[in-house]
Amino acid sequence: MDDQAYLGQSGRAQRRLERIAEFVKNRLEETARLYSSEDHDPATRWEHILRVAQYGAQLARAEGADVETAVAACLLHDVAHFEPMADHKNHGRIGALIARRILLELDYPAEQVEDICYAIAVHVDGKAGYEHEETVEGKIVSDADNIERFGVFRILMFCAPEMGDSGAMVEKLRKRVARLEEYLASNPLETASGRALLAKQLTRQIRFFKDLIAEWELTSLPRL
Question: Using CA atoms, how far apart are residues 128 and 116, in angstroms rounded to an integer?
Fold first, then answer.
């Protein structure tokens, strides 16, 4: 492929991703408004989705996967997050149904539509609800979603509820460190690059929380 053809293809892919992003953002705002609750914060959910898409692009390049397929699926993975459903574990499978419409409107090839929808469907619990060959892009969406949950913003979000009660926060963090260390030891992500990035995220959280606990233990009058 010559440079001009590549730039044309790259520009077309970027425009499609921008359309998907607009669709998802609008859908989140609409469903949050229709089914309002204190847990329905479309701005925070959208920020999560953007970070997942960034991690997805990074993992796709490292794993030699189709970057546009992975990023499109990452952008759409939580499109059903605020939809009413009996079991929230189904939001990936419901999201795949919703995603199909915009993907067809954007003239994605049929095989790519199926791969994107499959990646969305399986990202919660590894079950699409229908037969489809496993794909590296499906693994990447799940990995990227998990990696984002242990990023720097999540440190802030985890500590925020107890900011006015340092003692309660420290007790919460002691339990959190133990769980994070167990997760670091098992590191169940599905791609090599995903496991490496998750280990980096978890190690940073564990170190920060341990430092915070150690500093809390200094919060007393010195003994002479």
Answer: 12
Q: Out of 117, 140, 163, pick the residue that ends a domain.
A: 140
First to last CA, the chain: 75
From the list 17, 106, 125, the residue with the least C-alpha distance to 70 is 17
Tens of pLDDT, residue by residue over 115-155, are 999 999 999 999 999 999 999 999 999 999 999 999 999 99
pTM for this entry: 0.92
Q: Specify the CATH number for the domain of residue 110.
A: 1.10.3210.10
Name the residue range of residue 172's domain.
Answer: 152-216
- Tokens, residue 102: 């915009």
Supply the DSSP string of 59-85, one letter for each residue: HHHHHT--HHHHHHHHHHTTTTTTS--
Amino acid at 199: A
Give the whole-angstrom CA distance, residue 144 versus residue 54.
Answer: 8
Q: Reduced to 3 states, what is the DSSP secondary structure of residue 145?
A: helix
Q: Rounded CA gap, 107 and 177, in Å?
A: 47
pLDDT for 94 equals 97
* Nearest-angstrom CA–CA distance, 189 and 144: 9
| Phi and psi, residue 65, nearest 5° | -90, 175
